[in-house]
Every structure is written in structure tokens, then in C-alpha cells.
Amino acid sequence: MKSNKVWRLGMGDVQILPGPRHRSSTKRPVWIIALVLMVSLFLVCAYIYPPQSNAACYVFSSRGCKVLTDWLPPAPARLYTDEEIASRIVIREILNTPPAQTKNAKVAFMFLTPGSLPFEKLWEKFFSGHEGRFSVYVHASKEKPIHVSHYFVNRDVRSHQVVWGKISMIDAERRLLANALQDPENQHFVLLSDSCVPLHKFDYVYNYLMYTNISYVDCFNDPGPHGNGRYSEHMLPEIEMKDFRKGAQWFSMKRQHALILMADSLYYSKFRDYCKPGLEGKNCIADEHYLPTFFSMVDPGGIANWSVTHVDWSERKWHPKSYRAQDVTYELVRNITSIDLSIHVTSDEKKEVQIQPCLWNGIKRPCYLFARKFYPEALDKLLQIFSNYTAI
Ligand SMILES: *[C@@H]1O[C@H](CO)[C@@H](O)[C@H](O)[C@H]1NC(C)=O
Ligand SMILES: *[C@@H]1O[C@H](CO)[C@@H](O)[C@H](O)[C@H]1NC(C)=O
Ligand SMILES: *[C@@H]1O[C@H](CO)[C@@H](O)[C@H](O)[C@H]1NC(C)=O
Ligand SMILES: *[C@@H]1O[C@H](CO)[C@@H](O)[C@H](O)[C@H]1NC(C)=O
């Protein structure tokens, strides 16, 4: 019965169709050509005069307009390399896995230093009374440090030489992270130098870092010679010049971000091989570019784009301002702790300045928790005003 009906329907179609077919056989080519011409004309016009305002779009509905503009410049879609596909999927999975909840979350303070740390006594005051909520790691690249505070004793990690500008600096950072990641209670990781000092009391720093939803990795686009000028095309195809970023190395990051750095070998190897001083007549500094470029490519919304460690570049010299004992005053510390805008000065001829408010979970807050660079002679002054400034 069923197949019979279907067959009859089919027959019906066949019988009905010949009529219109015959009728249009002569007129059809003409109106098809006219239609094709009109559509082509419309497309040519739309290409030459792309709709400038929404009003123009409404002629074809706003959605139609979007489809049309999407068509026009055929975006050169790049196919990912095998390594890139593998790398991106691992990174994506780590970022999508919520961090394991630990009863006792700690901040890992990781010190990258050539030798002894001149401000251990200051850090001791900072840590004192907060046992169990932090851990300390020291990577001393030149000589074995002599520790004067018990918080630092036996906290040295196995270390290697660090050559300025080269990948060995990143290696040292990764070594510190790997050591700190071994403790599952470490949830936030701060990289500090021997010339860094804390600007706030422990609770303020702990809450600022532990309850943030992003990492504080410094990152900006510098079109000048000390930014994009250091880029090498050997980094293609994975890293294009438009992806290249700059930023100070002193980061603080969430556990997931520390993990994706451990997982990365693709982008790391590009910077190891093609970003170093003297390569192709350029002075590429791996630690100023690897992290900012990597994070802005794989998780741009996950980083703040500024560092919680303050440094004063306003003198515009090769090195930032270093504070001597006589410079260290309560007023100086109060000034630094009240800054709530981050400023990046590019190296292009216009010395363009990029300013953005420091946002903590969407709320405007002071940018800095730590500051550098202080001469060792500043210790006594810092200790004197410590009780004062940790009240900030
Ligand atoms: C950081 O900059 C990137 C662009 O490079 C941007 O997409 C991201 O939203 C910025 N992060 C924050 C927290 O604003
Ligand atoms: C602190 O900031 C004020 C206002 O910007 C400035 O006049 C003063 O010189 C600063 N003091 C120090 C020690 O930086
Ligand atoms: C962080 O929190 C702010 C405010 O709630 C929100 O706007 C932002 O998207 C969050 N960022 C991430 C990476 O979750
Ligand atoms: C402590 O802070 C007060 C202002 O509240 C300031 O006048 C004083 O000089 C500070 N003491 C030191 C040792 O810096």
C-alpha cells in the first residue's frame, strides 16, 4: 500500500512538472542573466562602498550586513602546525580544569637572585606570624647564599648559571615554578628579585593574590625597535609579529598558568632559539618577551597586562631607577602604594605611552604589592618605616 502511494505521488510530480518547464524554456535564460547581473552589481557596489553606518545595513537587515562584511576581505586562515594543535589542546584542557581546592592555600614566594638576599630581615618581618600560608624558594645562580632568616634556610633549589637576556633566565624561572608546583597547597606563584621589597602587610598581599581571578603578567605591544624590532621571522608560523609582546619578567601567577608554562615546549623553543642578544643584529631579551607573548596568545583575558612589582622607568635610562638609603622615605612608599594606573612607554619614535587602570576582579585598585630596585644599604631605612608602611 505505502509504496504504491509513494509511486503515485512520484507519478503526479512527473505529470505536473512538464507544464511550467515548457512555458519557461525560452524566457528563463534572460531573467537568470538579469538576476545574476543584479546580484553581481550589488556585490561590486557593496565591496567598493562597504556599509559605513548601521542605517545602510538595515536595507538588508543587520544580520545580512554582518554576513556580507564577513565575506569581503577573505581572512587568510592559517592552518595550525601539528605541534601547535597538540600544544593548544593541552593548554586548553589545563585552563578549563578548575584548580583543586586545598584546605590551606599558600602563596609561593620565589626569589631569583645571584647570591645572598639583602632584604631577608625585612621579608622575615613580612612573613612573621603567617606560617602555613606561604612558602619560600630561592634560586641563586652565582654563589651559595648565606641566609640570615630562618624562613630562607634550606629553601634553596638546585640552580644553574643565568646569562642576562638568554633563555637561561626563563629556565631559572621554570625551575622555581617546577619546585614550587610540587607542593599542591601552593596556589599562587610570585617571582621576586634580590632587590625587591614588600609594600604591604602580609594579609593584604595574600588576599590580593589568592582571591584574584587573573595572573599579573606584564604585557604590552611595543611597535618600536626594543619591541617588535626584536622579533625574528624564524618564529613563524606559530608566532607572527602581530602576536609579539613585551613586558617585565616579574610575574605573579595562578597555579593553572604555572602548569601551562610547564607544559609548553613549542613556544619556549622558539624563544630559546630565536630570541637572544646579538642574534641577526638584534638584542632580543628572552625574559622580556616569552611570557607576555605566550600568555597573550593562549589566554589573553587571563592576564592583567601589568606586574604587581613596581619599578620606576621614568628616568628613561637603560636601567630603572635604583633607590639608595637617602631616597627611602615613608612618603616614597606611600606614593608607590597609591598608584592605580599602569603605564607602558613604547620604544617607537613617538614614545607612545599606554595607560590603563589597574583592575582587581573588575574593581579599580592600587597596582603594586612589591617594588624594586633597592640598594642593600636601604635595609635599615626600610626596617625603620616598615611598621609604618605595612599599616597602609
Ligand atoms: C590584556 O590585554 C589583552 C590584549 O592584549 C586583552 O585581550 C585582555 O582583556 C587584557 N586583560 C585585561 C584583564 O584587561
Ligand atoms: C610623592 O608624590 C608627590 C605628588 O605626586 C610628589 O610631589 C612627591 O615628590 C613624591 N615624593 C616622593 C618621595 O616620591
Ligand atoms: C574576573 O572577574 C571580573 C569581575 O567579576 C570579570 O569581569 C572578568 O571577566 C573575570 N576574568 C576572568 C578571566 O575570569
Ligand atoms: C610614620 O608615618 C608618619 C605619618 O603617618 C610619618 O610622619 C613618619 O615620618 C613615619 N615614620 C617613619 C619612620 O617613616
From TrEMBL:
Segments traversing the membrane = 30-49
For this UniProt entry, what's an example GO CC term?
membrane
Organism for this UniProt entry: Erythroxylum novogranatense
Q: Which keywords does this Swiss-Prot/TrEMBL entry list?
A: Glycoprotein, Glycosyltransferase, Membrane, Transferase, Transmembrane, Transmembrane helix
Where, subcellularly, is it found?
Membrane
- InterPro entries reported in the protein's UniProt record: BC10-like (IPR044174), Glyco_trans_14 (IPR003406)
One of its Pfam families is Branch
Any one Gene Ontology MF annotation carried by this entry is:
glycosyltransferase activity
This protein's name: Core-2/I-branching beta-1,6-N-acetylglucosaminyltransferase family protein
The upper taxonomy is: Eukaryota, Viridiplantae, Streptophyta, Embryophyta, Tracheophyta
Tell me the membrane topology, using the record's own terms. Answer: Single-pass type II membrane protein
Where mainly found? Answer: membrane
